[in-house]
Amino acid sequence: MGKDKNNQSSVWNTIVNNDEVVNIHLLFNISHMSTLILKKRKELLATFELEPWSYDMLVILYQAGESGLSPKELLKRTGVASGTMTHRINLLLKSEFIISTPAPDDGRSIIATISDKGKSVVKKAIKAHADESAKILGDLNKEELAAFQQITQKLIHQLQ
Questions:
Q1: For a Cys staple, 98 with which of 3, 49, 92, 124, CB 3.0–4.6 Å?
Q2: pTM of the entire predicted model
Q3: Which domain of life is it from (predicted)?
């Protein structure tokens, strides 16, 4: 097994240098970690009959409070296409997680507000999400968490 690993390493090194191999493996690990976290997140949110996108929208609307948000404001905060947003709003309305009222300044638009049902579900989902996050990150001490947060924010900023 050790011989195989050395052989693989030497094959890599015929193409890229050792530092580049480390970078490739690090990004593979980040990608793999992201996939695993997303899978756990989907499984967790499914217990509340939510998808990651619906959870994110409900959290945004919960934070917005009673004033709600227009589809245009939701677009800015989520980064999805207009047609996608319309579809998502319709699904959340159908599930009774949100309510819509006519926009006071534009009769053609609406204001989406989280419903009591949506508030109840999202509060439970937020707590479960926090508990699951603590489990995932539980092996890291406070210094490692702070460093991880700083590093990930730096990488996200660089990628945007």
A1: 92
A2: 0.80
A3: Bacteria
Question: Which residues lie below 8 Å from residue 89, measured CB to CB, with a gap of 6+?
Answer: 71, 74, 98, 100, 110, 112
Number of domains in the chain: 2
Please tell me what DSSP assigns to residue 48.
Answer: T
Amino acid at 97: F
Residues 37 and 83 reside in one and the same domain: no
Same domain, 103 and 134: yes
The 10s digit of each residue's pLDDT in 91-128 is 999 999 999 999 888 878 899 999 999 999 999 999 99
Tell me how far apart the alpha carbons of residues 134 and 44 are, in angstroms, rounded to a whole number: 14
CA distance 115 to 96: 7
Domain shared by 141 and 81, yes or no: yes
